[in-house]
Amino acid sequence: MASPSLVWLRDDLRLADNPALRAAMDRGEPVALLYVLDEESPGIRPHGGAARWWLHHSLASLRERVKELGGSLTLRRGPAERVVSQTVADIGAGAVYWNRRYGGAERDIDAGLKSSLREEGVEVASFQASLLHEPWTVTTGSGTHFSVFTPFWRACLALPTPRAPLPAPRALDGLTPPPSSDELDDWGLLPTRPDWTGGLRETWEPGEPAARARLRTFLQDDVPAYDRARDEPSAGATSLLSPRLRWGELSPFTVWHEAVEAHGTAGFLSELGWREFAWHTTFHAPDIATKNLRRQYDAFPWPRLSPSHLEAWQRGSTGIPLVDAGMRELWHTGFMHNRVRMVTASFLVKNLLIDWRRGEEWFWDTLVDADGASNPFNWQWVAGSGADAAPYFRVFNPELQAKKFDPQSLYISQWAADAPTEPIVDLAATRKAALAAYEVVKRTATQS
Asked: Which domain holds residue 48?
């Protein structure tokens, strides 16, 4: 009697270059695809609002593509270990395949499942699919993990060329009848009262086909100007691939090889490297979203939180044009240009003296590309407390940044034409206060 293969999908919502799916098909038995919405397992961080919107539409797209190929996508909700085990029992699966995850809580779940399923006689295998180089394969000469990007990326480039991407299946041998499934609409991933996602709908089309189309457009039209214009928020030179990689609608192997074939710039490829470095760091510091990587920053004397300042920052009403433009772009589109992300983050931490974790939480809720590594990693980089972090004394001046990267105010005019013009703080005075606070960290580190 046939024993079906179960493919457990996570942050790999695609058919092309999906090693777990390929392994299941190569096994030669019918294949069931499962996605579990797990918001209950210990340590699992629930998705933010913008991410939930993206997930809904990406799953809807994937479900239709799977159906067209003769398969079905089963949706179930609950603690992953329990749900996957129950699904295995429901369909009599003889093998379970998934692509690896690198967060601490996720690794614990996967390891527990792998052990328990194997004890029951089920074949279990996991695969490398979301990183070009798995975190434990890139080490310093002394065998430790890296804490600085440039030598990390140099070491990555010295490794063998990343494997070629796998083709998408032309057909799927699904189960008849398919396993019982939740209705996607019943998960309540889309906001309704109010529905604030109009800007997201105008900006994005989630799903693997749209991801592939965006990659082609970027490589054909935008790569030549990438290194020159990527820091200009009005230039439209960035790839806009970050949510596609975050949700696994594209694999990094596909992006890497197609970019190389299209003579993509070293600057663009290094952005893939920065993503790898964020996960490399998170693998070795899974509490990155809540704890300073550089523990001496625990001594930073954060003043009492000003709710009005935090709200002004969140709403894009600080009176600082570039900051307000970025925060309004974020609210409308679920995205913000990378240069402006650094400026808005620096303003929150170093001018408003608000703990970086507050900003990280807001970005987690409002970004469509927020993931468990890049979001906290980049916030710690700006705050000075992270790996290869910006020096504590580097305070981005948003006015100078605007003159340099938005000299004609095209970006500011697009997003913040009606924003307040009276700054809520004095940039020079707050910079001095930030430097004085960082001196406390410096003295504490020296005394310890």
From this structure: 5-129
CATH code for the domain in which residue 326 is found: 1.10.579.10
> What is the per-residue pLDDT across 239-287, written as a single tens digit (0 to 9) for each?
999 999 999 999 999 999 999 999 878 899 999 999 999 999 999 999 9
262 and 272, same domain (yes or no): yes
Are 146 and 278 in the same domain?
A: yes
Q: What percent of the chain clears pLDDT 70, i.e. is strictly above it? A: 99
> What per-residue confidence (pLDDT) applies to 437?
92
Q: Name the binding residues for FAD.
A: 226, 238-242, 268, 369-371
Q: Note whether 273 and 335 are same-domain residues.
A: no
**pLDDT tens-digit profile of 62-120?**
999 999 999 999 999 999 999 999 999 999 999 999 999 999 999 999 999 999 999 99
Three-class SS of the chain: CCCCEEEEECCCCCCCCCHHHHHHHHHCCCEEEEEEECCCCCCCCCCCHHHHHHHHHHHHHHHHHHHHCCCCEEEEECCHHHHHHHHHHHHCCCEEEEECCCCHHHHHHHHHHHHHHHHCCCEEEEECCCCCCCHHHCCCCCCCCCCCHHHHHHHHHHCCCCCCCCCCCCCCCCCCCCCCCCCHHHHCCCCCCCCCCHHHHHHCCCCHHHHHHHHHHHHHHHHHHHHHHCCCCCCCCCCCCHHHHHCCCCCHHHHHHHHHHCCCCHHHHHHHHHHHHHHHHHHHCCCCCCCCCCHHHHHCCCCCCCHHHHHHHHHCCCCCHHHHHHHHHHHHHCCCCHHHHHHHHHHHHHHCCCCHHHHHHHHHHHCCCCCCCHHHHHHHHHHCCCCCCCCCCCCCCHHHHHHHHCCCCHHHHHHHCCCCCCCCCCHHHHHHHHHHHHHHHHHHHHHC
Q: Are residues 237 and 314 in the same domain?
A: no
Annotated binding site: 226, 238-242, 268, 369-371
pTM of the model: 0.97
